[in-house]
């Protein structure tokens, strides 16, 4: 379980195995060439000799040139290795972000109701970035250091097997020490990533309330709350750093300790006559070669820990259960006639508080049905169930006689054209937004849809017209205009069932009236499902359902309901009182 | 960068102490090999066993000392960078709060989120890495240089020149990396924006079976491209350092050979030089990592600085003569983007305690007009007055404290129902309940499992649209404002609830000056003055009765909406 993230991360690295091997080869070549530099300079120093006027300058120059050349080649190779790794690390980060977003787009809607967007941002940005740092620089360094250490160690074993026994004690010791510390530190780094995510969640929410915070002048309290989150995140960050701070120095300490042990034991062995002075001297020289790379690697350990915790968080996101996939044998809906029926549907977001109780209704194909009722009566819930955001706890919902679950989920959603109360626009231009989901729509078709949604003349009045890009700043479109754009999108689509959930709540009645006329054209050959609390928009419906307390309280045409003199009539009269 | 470094000041002593301790640790670790050399070169040949043991013991002590010093120094460095980042983030947040709406629009909310989060991490990382990894290498290089000068000044000059060249190159490389990292951060803004939009609009995204992946991919790819370029530039730091140091060594040996040949120095000094050189070279091993962090951190620091140094807007200006009445406008024009005016030539006035209705089709500038009253934006031309005084001459806070506003795009925050009504203002539970009753929210709140203390899901996802709207109205009422602005605040309410809301507001707040924005005549019919807006201009104004007389358009609206005139 614990190491699973490592396995998962490897899945992302595996496609780059050849590149990684190439980088390793380049780094090894660079390392070997780098060893030539001291060799050449040693020869050069040897060629200098000790006597003035006796220096073999030609030979010195040749050796220096050799050193310079190997240094140049080493630099080129090591740059090559670093470049390959940088590219690889970026490719992996890219793939991680892509996979994270792919998973995010598959998560059920409930996930977003309980997980702050800021936390997702933190995983996709900060956590992936932390993993990237480890891949692009740390890995190279650990690799080359390991190479040097192993090489030097082999030399040591050749020089004096008994003395290298010292390392048999110190190397496992530092490994064990590191292991123990890492185990202790790991949860701290997890907390650190988590708290940063929480801080981001807070920031994301509050920046979104900038206007209200300013207007109600609650900056001080908001800042106090922010500072609470900031202090908590900083504190956990520090605690992880603090624990991690001992990691490198303690490995270093053991390395230094082994130097002391070698010199003392080596001296003892020399005095004992089992080791020559020359051998001891080279032994010490090689064990000192350890120190640099070990120090550098030890310094990285805490970074690697942070990366591990970050990788784990990214993998946790990738492992979030998506909306259940389509079971085998489900049907990809083709053209639907649009007969919808709800049979004895029970549903509550929290089963203890049912929203719909034994809700049953038949919507014939090609008809226009309106749902009205007080807010909170469960109107939007019907749409959520049709879209399969949730599954009913009892009863069944069928379209064309087949239960919803027997269609592919996305296929079914594609057959529905839908405008929700909170219209959402993607980036890109206005034309892109209208043509969303209808690839290959021509400009003429787009304009036609915009005309039907009564927003064409506004759009043409914009300096860039239909090519105006949309941004997330306050200067954008009004809420009503966004609804009209969503309607235009709906008009352009070729869906079989049209669902409008308070689609024109922020649109003026005159425009609404004109849209109703366009809707008359749109509904031909389609089933229309209309939710509204304003009765003007529902008058022309074939049937009106009055929802109350999770059940259909009344139904009939506008005229029938008016003459029945029940809830509908009361609602109707309220608008003229 | 300068601004960020300014945050070092309160911790300068602590940081200096940390550096000093790190320095000590480095010195202790430098003495180790000297002792080692002494054991092998002197003590072992002499066979002085007690001295060998003593030296070994001393080495152990030094190693222990280095351990303690390094851990302490690392922790102090972590503490200093943590405190600096915390303070920086605090100030940045405070500055973001204080940005005018126009400034916040210009930065865009996503970019502000990104600066507050991602950019502050990069700065944190930079501060940490510089303190921890940026001491040893320069110190050893510097120490090595000093020692070589003592040894042989001529050769040392070569070494110095090479070192200077190295530093120069690294500085240039780092500088070239910064713009790439800045581009990468801009791409991150786009990533943040897409994630925010997808989280907030998840239901529509799902319903439309949106292929948002392409849009994300674009930002993701741009991020990768920029980071890759930056990485490729920064990857040069280590090889260049190494190469220059090695070339320097070759030069030193060559020059040394010439000098030895000329009898100017003993040959042994070249060997000593190469020893120091090895020391310096191993010290620069991790230098690239530090510089990557510096260049990334500098790019982020610049982005943070842009916000911190954004000019303070909306100060108090000398008043322009206001018109008559408690609240009003004269000749006001305003444009969000500074191009085509979004509203123009607005002139009207309203007595204290009166009700203003703003009516018109969507996108005609109703919300823009309302945003000018509490000075969320400043008019480009004309004068806006509240309380009989030009708003630009009033203290913004004093002015805004008179308002309660429900905007179209207001959102609920995480927390309970009560916390959302109180909205950080410390409003009593009784007052919150009263406000909720007036806002017609009490019936549904009292049915929630824990009443006022029911926790809400993000953005109030567990409430219906109408319930969310009523909570926002309760929020505006809870502050008992003098002026209440309701911007299409009843668009998701049914007629009966909306009517009850209007009645109860009048009952609970008989003195309040009311500004009601709506698409519907019924919501504003009772207003003392109705502004009929059309494409950013006032088409007609007057009371319901007056407008029935004077405006054909108004009459048509009434006919259409109210099933026939006086109704």
Question: How does this model look, in words?
Answer:
- The complex is a heterodimer of chains A (577) and B (567).
- With 577 residues, chain A is an alpha/beta fold.
- Chain A has 2 domains: 4-318, Up-down Bundle (ABC transporter transmembrane region fold), CATH 1.20.1560.10; 340-574, P-loop containing nucleotide triphosphate hydrolases (Rossmann fold).
- Chain A is built from 19 helices and 10 strands.
- In chain A, the strands form 2 sheets. Chain A has a 6-stranded mixed beta sheet with strand order 6-7-8-3-9-10, sandwiched between helices.
- In chain A, a hairpin with an 8-residue loop joins strand 1 (340-347) and strand 2 (356-363).
- In chain A, helix 6 (161-207) runs parallel beside helix 10 (277-318).
- Chain A starts with a helix and ends with a helix.
- Chain B folds into 3 domains: 1-79; 99-187 and 225-310, ABC transporter transmembrane region fold, CATH 1.20.1560.10; 327-562, Rossmann fold, CATH 3.40.50.
- Chain B is 64% helix and 11% strand.
- Chain B is built from 22 helices and 12 strands.
- In chain B, the strands form 3 sheets. Chain B has a 6-stranded mixed beta sheet with strand order 6-9-10-3-11-12, sandwiched between helices. Chain B has a 4-stranded antiparallel beta sheet with strand order 2-1-4-5, with helices on one face.
- In chain B, a hairpin with an 8-residue loop joins strand 1 and strand 2 (343-350).
- The model of chain B has no long low-confidence stretch (mean pLDDT 89).
- At the A-B interface, helix 2, helix 3, helix 4, helix 5 and helix 6 of A face helix 2, helix 3, helix 4, helix 5 and helix 7 of B.
């Amino acid at each position: 379980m614990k190491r699973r993230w490592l396995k998962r991360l490897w899945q992302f690295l595996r496609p780059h195995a050849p590149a990684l091997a190439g980088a390793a080869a380049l780094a090894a070549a660079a390392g070997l060439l780098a060893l030539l530099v001291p060799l050449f300079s040693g020869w050069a120093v040897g060629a200098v000799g000790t006597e003035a006027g006796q220096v073999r300058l030609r030979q010195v120059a040749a050796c220096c040139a050799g050193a310079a050349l190997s240094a140049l080649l080493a630099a080129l190779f090591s740059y090559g290795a670093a470049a390959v790794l940088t590219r690889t690390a970026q490719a992996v980060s890219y793939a991680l972000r892509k996979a994270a977003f792919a998973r995010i787009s598959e998560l059920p809607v409930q996930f977003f109701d309980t997980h702050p967007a800021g936390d997702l941002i933190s995983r996709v940005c900060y956590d992936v970035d932390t993993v990237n740092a480890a891949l692009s620089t740390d890995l190279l360094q650990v690799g080359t250091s390991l190479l040097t250490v192993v090489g030097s160690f082999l030399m040591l074993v050749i020089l004096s097997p008994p003395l290298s026994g010292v390392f048999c004690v110190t190397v496992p010791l530092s490994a064990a020490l590191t292991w123990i510390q890492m185990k202790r530190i790991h949860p701290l780094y997890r907390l650190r990533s988590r708290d940063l995510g929480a801080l981001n969640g807070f920031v994301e929410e509050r920046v979104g309330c900038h206007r209200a915070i300013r207007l109600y002048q609650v900056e001080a309290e908001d800042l106090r709350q922010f500072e609470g989150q900031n202090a908590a995140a900083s504190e956990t960050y520090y605690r992880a750093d603090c624990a991690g701070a001992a990691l490198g120095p303690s490995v270093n300490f053991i390395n230094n300790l082994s130097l002391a042990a070698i010199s003392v034991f080596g001296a003892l062995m020399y005095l004992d006559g089992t080791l020559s002075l020359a051998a001891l001297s080279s032994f010490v020289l090689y064990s000192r070669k350890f120190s640099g790379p070990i120090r550098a690697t030890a310094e990285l350990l805490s970074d690697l820990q942070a990366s591990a915790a970050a990788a784990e968080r990214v993998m946790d996101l990738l492992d979030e259960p998506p909306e259940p996939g389509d079971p085998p044998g489900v049907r990809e809906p083709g053209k639907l006639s649009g007969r919808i029926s709800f049979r004895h549907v029970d549903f509550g977001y929290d089963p203890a508080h049912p929203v719909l109780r034994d809700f049953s209704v038949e919507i014939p194909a090609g008809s226009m049905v309106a749902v009205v009722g007080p807010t909170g009566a469960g109107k939007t819930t019907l749409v959520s169930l049709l879209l399969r955001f949730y599954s009913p706890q009892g009863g069944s919902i069928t379209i064309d006689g087949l239960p919803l679950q027997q269609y592919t989920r996305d296929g079914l959603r594609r057959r529905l054209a839908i405008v929700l109360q909170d219209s959402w626009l993607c980036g890109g231009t206005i034309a892109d937004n209208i043509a969303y989901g209808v690839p290959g729509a021509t400009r003429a078709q787009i304009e036609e849809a915009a005309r039907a949604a009564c927003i064409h003349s506004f759009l043409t009045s914009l300096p860039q017209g239909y090519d105006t890009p949309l941004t997330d700043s306050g200067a954008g479109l009004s809420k009503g205009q966004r609804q009209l754009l969503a309607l235009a999108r709906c008009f352009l689509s070729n869906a079989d069932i049209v669902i409008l959930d308070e689609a024109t709540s922020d649109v003026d009645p005159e425009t609404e009236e004109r849209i109703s006329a366009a809707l008359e054209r749109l509904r031909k050959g389609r089933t229309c499902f209309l939710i509204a609390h304003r009765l003007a928009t529902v008058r022309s419906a074939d049937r009106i359902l009055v929802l109350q307390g999770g059940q259909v309280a009344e139904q009939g045409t506008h005229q029938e309901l008016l003459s029945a003199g029940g809830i509908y009539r009361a609602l109707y009269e309220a608008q003229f009182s | 960068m300068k601004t960020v470094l300014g945050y070092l000041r309160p911790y300068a002593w602590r940081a200096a102490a940390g550096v000093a301790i790190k320095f000590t640790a480095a010195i202790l670790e430098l003495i180790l090999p000297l002792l080692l050399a002494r054991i092998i070169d002197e003590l072992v040949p002499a066979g002085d066993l007690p001295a060998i043991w003593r030296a070994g013991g001393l080495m152990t002590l030094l190693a222990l000392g280095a351990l303690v010093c390094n851990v302490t120094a690392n922790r102090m460095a972590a503490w200093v960078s943590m405190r600096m980042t915390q303070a920086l983030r605090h100030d940045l947040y405070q500055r973001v709060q204080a940005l005018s709406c126009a400034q916040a629009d210009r930065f865009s909310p996503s970019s502000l989120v990104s600066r507050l989060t991602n950019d502050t991490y990069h700065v944190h990382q930079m501060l940490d890495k510089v303190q921890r990894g940026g001491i040893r290498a320069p110190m050893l290089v510097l120490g090595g240089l000093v020692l070589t000068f003592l040894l042989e000044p001529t050769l040392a000059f070569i070494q110095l020149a090479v070192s200077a060249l190295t530093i120069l190159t690294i500085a240039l490389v780092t500088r070239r990396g910064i713009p790439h990292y800045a581009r990468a951060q801009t791409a991150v803004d786009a990533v943040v924006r897409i994630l925010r939009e997808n989280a907030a609009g998840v239901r529509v995204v799902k319903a439309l079976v949106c292929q948002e992946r392409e849009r994300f991919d674009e930002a993701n790819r741009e991020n990768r491209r920029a980071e890759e370029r930056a990485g490729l530039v920064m990857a040069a730091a280590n090889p260049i350092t190494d190469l220059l140091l090695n070339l320097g060594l070759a030069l030193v040996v060559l020059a040394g050979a010439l000098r030895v040949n000329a009898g100017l120095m003993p040959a042994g000094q070249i060997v000593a030089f190469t020893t120091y050189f090895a020391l310096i070279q191993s010290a620069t091993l991790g230098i690239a990592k530090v510089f990557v962090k510096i260049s990334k951190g500098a790019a982020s620091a610049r982005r943070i600085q842009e916000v911190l140094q954004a000019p303070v807007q909306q100060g108090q200006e000398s008043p322009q003569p206001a018109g008559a009445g408690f609240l009003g406008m004269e000749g006001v024009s305003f444009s969000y983007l500074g191009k085509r005016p979004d509203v123009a030539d607005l002139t009207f006035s309203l007595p204290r305690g009166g009700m203003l209705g703003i009516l018109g089709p969507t996108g005609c500038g109703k919300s823009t007009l309302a945003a000018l009253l509490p000075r969320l934006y400043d008019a480009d031309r004309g004068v806006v007055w509240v309380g009989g005084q030009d708003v630009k001459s009033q203290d913004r806070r004093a002015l805004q404290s008179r308002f309660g506003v429900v905007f179209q795009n207001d959102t609920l925050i995480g927390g309970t129902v009560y916390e959302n009504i109180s909205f950080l203002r410390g409003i009593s539970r009784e007052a919150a309940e009263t406000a909720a009753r007036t806002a017609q929210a009490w019936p549904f709140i009292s049915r929630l499992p824990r009443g006022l203390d029911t926790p809400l899901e993000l953005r109030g996802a567990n409430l219906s649209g109408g319930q969310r709207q009523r909570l926002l109205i309760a929020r505006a009422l809870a502050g008992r404002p003098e002026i209440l602005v309701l911007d299409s605040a009843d668009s998701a309410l049914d007629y009966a609830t909306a009517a009850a809301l209007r009645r109860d507001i009048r009952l609970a707040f008989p003195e309040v000056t009311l500004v009601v924005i709506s698409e519907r005549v019924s919501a504003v019919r009772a207003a003392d003055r109705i502004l009929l807006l059309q494409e950013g201009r006032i088409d007609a104004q007057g009371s319901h009765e007056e407008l029935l007389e004077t405006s054909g358009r108004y009459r048509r609206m009434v006919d259409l909406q109210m099933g026939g005139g006086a109704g």
